[in-house]
Every structure is written in structure tokens, then in C-alpha cells.
Amino acid sequence: RQGPAAGAATPDAAPPTVPVTGGVNERGLPVRVPMAQLAAVTQPARPQEPAPRHDPDPEAVGGMLTRLYSGVRRAEAEETTEIFLPPAGGRTEGGHQ
Predict the structure, then answer these.
(1) Rounded CA gap, 33 and 25, in Å?
(2) Which residues sit opposite 32 in a β-bridge?
(3) If you placed Cys at 20, which of 9, 32, 36, 42 could pair as Cys (CB 3.0 to 4.6 Å)?
(4) Whole-number Å distance between alpha carbons of 74 and 59
């Protein structure tokens, strides 16, 4: 698809307050003009400059990893109890089958 003709929309222009139409059809309904109200059609989709990179603090990352691994070790060290499920077709909590 091609957008509107060059110069049809400037980057700083606000969209028109009244919809842009291409007249009316045989039923009297307004005919839409594709992309006529888009003000940013001519602006590039990507920013010109890359966003500044913010590297995380190595000490903070190390602290988070230490807490993560200590939590994993604690979870592995905990004694777990197995939960036995009743066989299929067995009694339910209410005692009914």
C-alpha cells in the first residue's frame, strides 16, 4: 500500500477535527479515505538514536543471585511429604462415590 501523497500530512500537523472523506456513496454514507487522518505517516518508525543503556549494578545483581540460590538450597533441603491421592473411583471428601 502507499500512503497519502508527499506533503499531504506534515509531522507536526494535528489530525483534522472533521473526518476526511472522499464524498458519499450511493447510499449517502461517507466514503473513507485510507490513512488521511494519520499525522505520523511520514515519521520513521524507529528512533534515530538508540536508547541509552543502563547497566545494572554488579553488586545488586550478585546480591539477587545469592538470595535466589540460597532460597533454592533451602527448598531442596526441606523435607517434603508425599501427598497420596485416592485411586480413581474411590471415595471423595464428602464420603460419597
Answers:
(1) 12
(2) 21
(3) 36
(4) 22
Is 69 in contact with 77 (CB distance < 8 Å)?
no
Query: What are 33-79's pLDDT values in tens digits?
Result: 777 766 555 566 666 777 788 888 999 999 999 999 999 999 888 87
Name the residue among 5, 9, 18, 60 with its Cα closest to residue 38: 9
DSSP strands (E only) in 17-97? 21-24, 30-32
Q: Find out whether 4 and 37 touch, Cβ atoms under 8 Å.
A: no
Phi, psi angle pair for 60, to nearest 5°: -65, -40
Distance between CA atoms of 12 and 17, rounded to whole angstroms? 15
Which single residue is written with the C-alpha cell 485416592?
Answer: 86
Mean pLDDT of the chain: 75
The model's pTM is: 0.32
Q: What angle do CA 48, 52, 56 make, to 5 degrees?
A: 155
